């Protein structure tokens, strides 16, 4: 897949290696490139997640007053069987930061990466 076909998201992280381990071990991402403690590029389908440590240009470009405020933004990963995925991740020792919530669009639950960045696991509601 060409880089122009990817949706890229940058997460600032405390520990690049821990973030790479979390996303590749538990959420099906693959490591595309690593620059040690500064930066890594992990991908899942059309999602390119740039995990950036304090030494990265992405982190240095972020003003301290903005970096200190956690947003409610998150990446959104879709699953066909969310309950099984929740069980698998729970058995792996991961802790969810929300309960499973159901609505007209489907079901979702939130997980936090080692730096506290949110990941939404989602299953779409059946369509008529």
From TrEMBL:
VOC domain sequence ranges: 5-124
Entries under PROSITE patterns matching the protein: VOC (PS51819)
Domain of life: Bacteria
InterPro entries xrefs: Glyas_Bleomycin-R_OHBP_Dase, Glyas_Fos-R_dOase_dom, VOC_core
Protein known as: Glyoxalase
